[in-house]
Amino acid sequence: MKHSLNLFFAVVVASMVAFGCKKPSDNPQPEPLEPFFEVCLFHPGDYQSSHWRIPALRCLSDGSLLAFSDKRKYNNTDLPEDIDIVVRRSTDCGKSWTEPMTMAEGTGYKHGFGDCAVVEAQNGDVVCAYVGGNGLWASTASDPQRSYIQISHDGGKSFEPRTDITSQLWGIRALNSACRTYTSSFFGSGNGLLLKRGAHKGRIMFVAAMVKNGTLDNFAVYSDDNGKSWNVSQKAYTGGDEAKVVELKDGSVLMSIRQSGARGYAVSHDGGETWEPQGRWPEMTTNACNGDMIRFSATDMGGKRDILLHSVPNSMERENVSIFVSYDEGTSWQLAKSICPGGSCYSSLTVLPDGRIGFYYEKGPTSAYELWYCCFTLEWLLGEE
């Protein structure tokens, strides 16, 4: 009987090998990561909307991906047009996505919403900042474009009602007295920031571009209680525009600011409350366009290299969206790779749980952008395969 059992198991194992199966004693090796794939999330005309714009992408701590977009229902114009903010979720690194869910629904001209920025707070809440109303340049003290915060407690599956924080940012009751003469504001869409180091660990931050006398200036807008209450920094950049922030290894905050020509920057050493004199990066000369800036890895948190990534058109036109890399904490940048040599514009970056990079961007002619998601390895990006 023992001999028969041994013969039986030998036949089973031989059959498994013959048909390409592994023996039970083999240690299965992980499948190699796909170096690059892409999928279109929105074409003009999809979901009864003539146009789509303004990508914002965030990978949460549970591995799920959130992709926010402006649903520009009737034309391609900014606020005050009728615009919804919608979000799609993915739990497989972007291979498949849920149907769009409306987070903020526009209800007509001067009653739309747009320009969503997103961050995951220390307590796991998803905190979104965006604007709505009559548009940046038509805003006045008596009829303001409004700034909102909206929070999800379940990973972006649902959202609580939005909170209007306009009066805290600018106008006669602004928290920062320097902002009381400003007449409008909007957030740089894409990624917000969660500080992970030092005295301000847990602080979440967005960047507002505020209008005074026809000029945009940048201020950090930050919360130390997971988005319940907000403060406004001292002015970070004069003559600024849409901006992003990233935390450096020493706990400083680096702000990158949209400019025409050399990209602007400023640095804060106190958690984004005050800012050093502004500067420019001549190696990143670009169209005046929104982009994204994130940390890929840090040696003080287990990474092999200190790497920052920055997406922006590598052109004086809205084309050739590319990714730049910094190995010296944002002191200098070098071109890593062009993602879309043709027409392309706004973009957003995130790091996935498997170490790949998620990228969500506008592709195509200015009048009819498509919103594309792609996923790639760092080795593919840096040409190290």
Structural commentary:
- The protein is built from three helices and 26 strands.
- The protein has 385 residues and is mainly β.
- The N and C termini lie far apart (54 Å).
- The protein has helices spanning 2-18, 166-169, 378-382; strands at 36-42, 51-59, 65-72, 83-90, 101-104, 113-120, 126-132, 146-152, 163-164, 184-187, 190-191, 193-194, 204-212, 215-223, 231-232, 237-238, 243-247, 253-257, 261-268, 279-286, 292-297, 307-313, 319-326, 334-351, 357-363, 370-376.
- The strands form five sheets. Strands 1-26-25-24-23-22-21 form a seven-stranded antiparallel beta sheet. Strands 10, 12, 13, 14, 15 and 16 form a six-stranded antiparallel beta sheet that branches. The protein has a five-stranded mixed beta sheet with strand order 9-8-7-6-11.
- The model is unreliable at 1-25 (pLDDT under 50).
Short description:
This protein has 385 residues and is mostly beta strands.
**Oligomer type:** single chain
Overall morphology: globular
Q: What is the C-alpha radius of gyration, as a whole number of Å?
A: 23 Å
Mind describing the biggest β-sheet?
7 strands, antiparallel
Lateral strand order in the biggest sheet? 1-26-25-24-23-22-21
Q: What is the β-strand count?
A: 26
Poorly predicted segments: 1-25
Number of helices: 3
Q: N-to-C terminal Cα separation, in Å?
A: 54 Å
Percentage beta strand: 35-45%
Helix/strand class: mainly beta
How do the SSEs run, as a string of H and E? HEEEEEEEEEHEEEEEEEEEEEEEEEEEH
- Indicate the mean pLDDT: 93
Helix content: under 10%
Please tag this protein with its features:
385 residues, single chain, 7% helix, 3 helices, mainly beta, 6-stranded antiparallel β-sheet, disordered N terminus, 26 strands
